[in-house]
Design brief:
Strand order of the largest sheet: 2-1-5-3-4
Strand content: 15-25%
Structural class: alpha+beta
Oligomer: single chain
Number of domains: 2
CATH superfamily of the largest domain: Beta-grasp domain
Helix content: 25-40%
Number of helices: 18
CATH topology of the largest domain: Ubiquitin-like (UB roll)
Radius of gyration: 22 Å
Largest sheet: 5 strands, mixed
Bound molecules: flavin-adenine dinucleotide, FE2/S2 (inorganic) cluster
């Protein structure tokens, strides 16, 4: 195994060996490279000031271009990737068309948020995203200008080709990535070790040798534990380079999503079968969070308010867990035992999430209730599925210590029975009574539609 990482930035390759588990990209850029165009606002993935553009090669050789939050991006996750920051977009003679449009549309005042917005919009322009400007910039916060000019800037330029000077940089980066290695390294520093195997067998063996290592996928949870919780885990085990953990298979009956697949890639497939989940997807963090964060991490962290598990439970998903060469499968709802307790041994890990394909006549509704539309933590999330034979799967997040099925209501079909399934907490996001009321109303909406269809 190598003892260094290598990535492409500023028109050349950077090889780094002295990388500690908690070293983040933003600090390396601003303090190490003195590239201070990329700003630090919240340092927790929320404000988008630190957004930059990252390119990675997909298994089919295509270049996946996404905006990410550098503040919570561990440097160790960058092996074989290419980075572009606000310093890269303009040529000496002209602004990038997105920058030009932001100026034209008065989308900037103090300018603090501007590099992050530009990065999110340039990434969306390169990727040719199908969604609205609002979705593309939902992960970026502007404290003074307002969003109208920024939205207009993206809408006007979203189909404009990249200017030749920047296109040449993208092509040079792709040529570099074609010859780059991805994973297969161990970084040892006085602050700790980072293990980054490239195949499943090595990952499983390392998990057994180091059950105390913290598994890291996209680090959109773990990154905050480091930057805000000031945790200094001495050992990391990275999923991001393990080819098999990026499996994306589909047959007539199931999707199999490898645990290290980011939401951005899961969504492309899942939403084709379940377009009703589009708003759920668009409100799961931001484009930056969905580019790094994984479905595997969202499930593995066991949070009662994660947005992935209720939908996956409603769809009847199963988890494949691995320990050494042994695998087992379980229904996702059985994985969550109690608050902070999952059915996962210390040397085991999540390998894949297996999601049934849509059946003929299946109905689905998924609704996230939160105080703010974008970038907010769920108060209640209801995900309801009904098969053509009438059987129901009614799952909730935010109603109990774990994501859970409303089994009493599934049997009685009476939304008023919700109090028999759940006794939610009151907290900052919602009171117990509000949670029960809103959950009952969501169920009423779904079950009334069933009765209306039958009438
Ligand atoms: C700004 C922001 C907004 C967010 N918005 C939302 C939101 O709207 N909805 C939501 O649900 N979440 C949200 N999150 C939380 C987070 O993005 C998700 O939980 C995400 O899916 C975590 O995935 P990850 O790959 O980043 O996990 P990581 O942070 O890498 O890991 C999370 C946990 O899972 C464990 N883990 C990861 N992979 C495996 C594996 N294969 N096997 C065993 N354990 C594993 C890790 O050890 C860790 O305990 C947000 C986060 C941020 C920063
Ligand atoms: S500094 Fe706010 S998202 Fe990174
Ligand atoms: S222009 Fe000042 S924060 Fe956006």
């Amino acid at each position: 195994m190598r003892n260094s990482i290598e990535f492409y930035y500023g028109g050349r390759s950077h090889r780094l060996a002295d990388v500690a588990p908690t070293d983040m990209l933003l600090t390396w850029l601003r303090d190490g490279q003195l590239a201070r165009g990329t700003k630090e606002g919240c340092n927790e993935g929320d404000c988008g000031a630190c957004s930059l553009v990252i390119a990675r090669l997909l298994p089919d050789g295509a270049m996946d271009v996404q905006p990410v939050n550098a503040c919570i991006m561990p440097l160790a996750n960058l092996d074989g990737a290419a980075l572009f920051t606000v310093e890269d977009f303009a040529s000496p003679d002209a602004l990038h068309p997105i920058q030009d449009a932001v100026v034209r549309e008065h989308g900037s005042q103090c300018g603090f948020c501007t590099p992050g917005f530009i990065a999110a919009m340039v990434a969306g322009q390169i990727a040719g995203v199908p969604h609205s400007a609002e979705v593309q910039i939902a992960g970026n916060l502007c404290r003074c200008t307002g969003y109208g000019g920024l939205i207009r800037a993206f809408e006007q330029e979203r189909d404009t080709p990249q200017p030749p000077a920047f296109q040449a940089k993208l092509e040079a980066a792709k040529a570099w990535m074609n010859n780059a290695e991805r994973g297969g390294f161990v970084l040892e520093t006085s602050a700790g070790s980072v293990f980054a195997p490239a195949d499943l067998e090595s990952f499983a063996a390392l998990r057994q040798q180091h059950p105390d290592a913290l598994i890291v996928a996209g680090a959109t949870d773990v990154g905050l534990w480091m930057t805000k919780g000031l945790k200094q885990p001495p050992k990391l085990l990275l999923t991001g380079y393990v080819t098999e953990l990026h499996a994306l298979e589909q047959d007539e009956a199931h999707f199999t999503f490898g645990a290290a697949l980011p939401y951005s890639r899961v969504g492309q497939h899942l939403l084709q079968d379940y377009p009703e989940a589009q708003a759920w997807f668009d409100r799961l963090g931001s484009v930056q969070v969905r580019a790094s964060g994984t479905l595997g991490g969202n499930i593995a962290n066991g949070s009662p308010i994660g947005d992935g598990p209720p939908l996956m439970i409603a769809l009847g998903a199963r988890l494949r867990l691995r320990r050494g060469s042994d695998t087992r499968e379980l229904a996702l709802e059985d994985y969550f035992i109690a608050y902070g307790k999952q059915d996962l041994a210390a040397d085991e890990f999540v390998e894949a999430v297996i999601v049934p394909r849509r059946q003929q006549g299946q109905r689905l509704m998924v609704e996230k209730v939160s105080r703010r539309v974008d970038q907010d933590i769920t108060a209640v999330l209801g995900a309801f599925s009904q098969s053509a034979d009438g059987s129901l799967r009614l799952a909730f997040g935010g109603m109990a210590a774990t994501p859970k099925l409303a089994k009493t209501v599934m049997a009685s079909r009476n939304p008023a029975d919700i109090g028999q399934d759940f006794e939610p907490l009151s907290d900052l996001r919602a009171s117990k009574d509000y949670r029960l009321r809103v959950a009952e109303n969501l169920l009423r909406h779904f079950l009334n539609a069933e009765q209306e269809a039958a009438a």
